[in-house]
Design brief:
4-stranded antiparallel sheet; globular; Rossmann fold; alpha/beta
């Protein structure tokens, strides 16, 4: 079966500095796949190269079996890939609702106003707080609310693959808990997710598979469960210790399992 996203020997960077040194990886439809690694490891460069914000130097990126490396970002989004960028990057002087409508720009001429309204209601169902804030300027919201708005904006393009770049960055633990629950729900509802995250334990707890990135190279990959149990991964990325039975990660894992059980009932 052809992977939804297939990357082979990808090299890219900025000016004369190569950041990615031959990355190869794949994402199957219906998965949450984590990219874990420290700040500066190359995760954001990989995300931005997939979406066309950084041009690949060599190698290939294919989506649904079609090469997308030469496309611009607008066309890649139209193909079915959405992005939630690091630090959200909302239009601060626009309302929440206006930001969400900007997310649907790639669908211009492809859907009725009724369809857009239905999609708006769907993201409001996923993030009820945004409905309360729909007329509020994006810049006046809390960090957690802005992250919800950034995810909702990406969903307005109806992506089959959602790229998330450091969604927990700068957020309070309770808010991170809520965001990760929503990511699990998105996967259960049919959206494939590629999650770049510094908090490796958090990412691995909700993912199916994972790739650890270090200085622009993939140094280990496998099922998320296997990486969580790997002592070398624990030492390098997980702090080598258990945060306790009542940790945020344990709560997310429990809630994710309960959600999947309800979906299969």
């Amino acid at each position: 079966m052809t992977p939804l996203l297939d990357i082979k020997d990808l090299r890219s960077g900025y000016k004369q500095m190569e950041v990615l040194h031959g990355i190869s990886m794949s994402v199957e439809a219906g998965e949450i796949v984590a990219l874990v690694g420290a700040n500066g490891a190359g995760k954001s460069t990989l995300i931005n190269t997939i979406i066309g914000l950084v041009r690949p130097w060599s190698g290939s990126v294919s989506f649904e079996g079609q090469a997308i490396s030469a496309l611009d970002t607008r066309d890649i989004v139209r193909r079915g890939i959405g992005i939630v960028p690091e630090r959200r990057q909302l239009f601060g002087s626009m309302s929440v609702e206006e930001n969400l409508m900007m997310g649907a720009y790639s669908r211009a001429g492809a859907g009725s106003q009724a369809t857009l309204a239905e999609d708006m209601e769907a993201v409001f169902t996923l993030f009820p707080r945004l409905k309360e804030r729909r007329r509020q300027l994006a810049s006046s919201m809390s960090g957690g609310e802005q992250q919800m708005a950034a995810i909702a904006r990406a969903l307005m393009s109806r992506p089959r693959l959602l790229l998330l770049d450091e969604p927990s960055l700068g957020l309070a633990p309770l808010v991170v808990d809520q965001i990760m629950e929503r990511i699990v729900q998105l996967r259960a509802d049919g959206t494939t997710v590629l999650l770049a995250e510094q908090n490796a334990r958090l990412a691995l707890d909700i993912s199916d598979r994972a790739y650890a990135v270090e200085t622009g190279n993939i140094v280990v990959s496998g099922s998320a469960r296997d990486l969580l149990a790997d002592e070398s991964v624990q030492r390098a990325y997980l702090g080598g210790g258990d945060d306790g039975e009542d940790s945020m990660e344990e709560r997310i894992r429990t809630k994710a399992q309960a959600y999947y059980q309800r979906q299969s009932a």
